[in-house]
Every structure is written in C-alpha cells, then in structure tokens.
Amino acid sequence: MDYLNVIKELKFLSNRKSATHIMDYLNVIKEYSNKEFIKHFRLNRTTADYLIACIEAAHITSEERTGREKVTPDEAIYITLWYLSNIETFRHLADRFNKRESTIYNIVKKVTHYFSNESTKYITWPTENHEVQEIVKGFYQKQKLDGVLGAIDGSHIKIRKAKVHQEVK
C-alpha cells in the first residue's frame, strides 16, 4: 500500500461518525420521582443507595488495569438494576449509559457475581417447621393464598375474576 492510500484511509477513518449515545443519563435518573424510580428499577432509592454503598465498599468498580472504561459505583448499580428490571440488550444499555457493550457486560457480570456471593447474608429459608407454618399462615391471612412460603418482586397485578368459578379468590 502506498502512502497516498494510507493517507486516504486515515482521512476516511478520522471522518467516521462515532456512535451516538445518551449523555448524562445518571442526571436523568437523579430527576426521577420516587414513583418513576421504582417503575424503572423495581426498588426504591434507599435500597439502591444501600447497594451502591456495598459495591463501593467492596471496590467492585475499581480499575486494576489501564485501558478500561471507568465505571462509578452508582453507574454499576443502575446499569445492573436496569438490566435485571427491563428487557434490554447490552447494546441498548451501552447507548443509555454511554458505555461500551463490553463494559456493560463486565459490570453486570461483576455486580451480579458479587451479590450472588453475598446472598446468604440477605436471603434465608426457614429451617424449622414452625417457622414455615408461621410464614404460610401470614401469607394466607394477608392475601388468602394458601401454601405460600415466599414471593418475588413487590408488584401487585390486579387479576379479574373469571366469569366461571367466581367463588375462587
């Protein structure tokens, strides 16, 4: 390849448009009302702040190597929560949070791995039969759901009664 072609190629590459990303999405998140925040992240701000503090204390986002994109603890939590709470690809997350797809993948992997390892501090199953019965009884008293030992998520979805068998609650 001669020098003229190299110069043309460099000129072409320098004129390429870089990918357009949403800028300063963290500032948008800070402006969310509590209701919007819960809708998008499936938990309240206080819990998100607690998770951010955990990640910060564990130095999950500290950069050991050069050349990697910097990710703050709050970015790491919001990226991971958005990934877990919404049906979006890493490409969409990269656009939303102005990061590379590989960075999004790595941070979601690190954060979920960390909390998976820490899960026994927060999630426990009852070990005694009387504890199980007490929990099942509590669910029944509150929602008339028999035989329920646990629930996932905090959303309540109204379900209309069927036209047949309306006696079933």
From TrEMBL:
Descriptive protein name: Nuclease HARBI1
Species name: Popillia japonica (Japanese beetle)
